Amino acid sequence: MPGELYNILMIAPTSFFADYGSHVRILEEARILRRMGNQITLCTYHSGQDVDALTIERTAGIPWRKGYEIGSSWYKIAFDALLTVKCAAVVRRLKPDVIHAFLHEGALIGYPLSLLDRVPLVFDFQGSLTSEMIDHKFLRPASLSHRLLYRLEGVIARLPQTIIANSYHAAELLASQFGCDRRKIHIVPDCVDSDRFRPGVIDGEERLALRARLGISPGCKVVVYLGLLAEYQGIDLLLQAAVHLVEARSDIHFLIMGFPNVEHYREMAGRLGLAEQVTFTGRIPYEEAPSYLALGDVAVAPKISATEGSGKLLNYMAMGLPVVAFDTAVSREYLGEQGVYVPLGDTLALSEALEALLDDPRRGMALGQQLRERATHYYPWPEAGEKILQVYREICQEPQ
């Protein structure tokens, strides 16, 4: 193929774009591949934000379901049926060189199209489907539904010719739990745009003005969180840790950014006596995230999910923020020796680690600088783009 450039159909079975983790990976992969000269067409659900002048093909809508689809939902069966129809039409019209499918539903939609049109299929794996359903309380562990869907998950994972995994932990999960051929698994970690996410992204006056707008007192030290607001993200545990801290001191403020369930957690914070010490911003546009993260002295990553990635860590790292995280395999993979880890679910240890960093700004600054160096060295998007293109080159040379 001249110049080794590709006509790529991306399948994103979600309400793209919606300013959170998996969507950021989809967006940044599309951006870097397009910047490298490839043609990108993205098929997704009817709702979502058009972004970055990407060519987006959306499904027809369902009149009684107009909002964003986040996590597991029975409605996604209907949306995926509509997405299958849309993808089939786009494949016939565009004749892509590669189908790049995100999430298990995307791989399942892409597989028959790959066979019928003899187009290589790449599965971009971001975590276990059934584990996510359990995290969202959509499935009960060890139930009949869980056992059946777990088997289906394994079948889907073995369908594509090749898989891109977003971490070494994810790659091991695919091989050990779902029987995927290790030779088919390529690791392309989540990455970060370190030119956009960087220290000093706003000046001192802008920082003070934004703090004031958010109701953060000038003398307070700020703990920042940016991501989805849900139990499996550890937001309940974060608020419990906040209680330990504010009982001992009044100079700490928690800036919790993201959605959904904002009112639920705002009410919870009020019941815990945290109304004055916690600000919930709601959804933060991805392009504005660096300015808000710049308000932080320390970042926190309380996620308790065992299989999902954690791209927010890279944003924290690139901003030069020290990070306190629950001790999970994915957190250690990204943060390395420069992360501050506490036992999973231990809210007292979480509060103590946050307080120790806030009280030792010299250590916090040193860790933040080391984390930024780690992010810029190991997790740049151009390197990820080259890895993806190499996957395409290999798979396009295989007989279909």
Can you walk through the features of this model?
By secondary structure, the protein is of the alpha/beta class. Helices cover 46% and strands 15% of the residues. The chain has 15 helices and 13 strands. The chain has helices at residues 21-35, 75-94, 103-117, 129-135, 144-157, 168-178, 204-213, 235-248, 262-271, 289-293, 312-318, 329-335, 347-358, 361-378, 381-397; strands at residues 7-12, 39-44, 55-58, 98-102, 121-125, 162-165, 185-187, 221-226, 252-257, 278-282, 298-301, 323-326, 340-342. The strands form two sheets. Strands 3-2-1-4-5-6-7 form a seven-stranded parallel sheet, sandwiched between helices. Strands 10-9-8-11-12-13 form a six-stranded parallel sheet, with helices on both faces. The protein is globular and about 65 Å long.
Secondary-structure content class: alpha/beta
Q: Which stretches are low in confidence, meaning pLDDT under 50 for 5 or more residues running?
A: none
Calculate Rg over CA atoms. Answer: 21 Å
- Give the tally of β-strands: 13
Structure characteristics:
globular, alpha/beta, 400 residues, 15 helices, 46% helix, 15% strand
Secondary structure elements and pairings:
Blueprint: E1 7-12, H1 21-35, E2 39-44, E3 55-58, H2 75-94, E4 98-102, H3 103-117, E5 121-125, H4 129-135, H5 144-157, E6 162-165, H6 168-178, E7 185-187, H7 204-213, E8 221-226, H8 235-248, E9 252-257, H9 262-271, E10 278-282, H10 289-293, E11 298-301, H11 312-318, E12 323-326, H12 329-335, E13 340-342, H13 347-358, H14 361-378, H15 381-397
Parallel strand pairs: 1-2, 1-4, 2-3, 4-5, 5-6, 6-7, 8-9, 8-11, 9-10, 11-12, 12-13
Helix pairs in contact: 1-15, 2-3, 8-13, 11-14
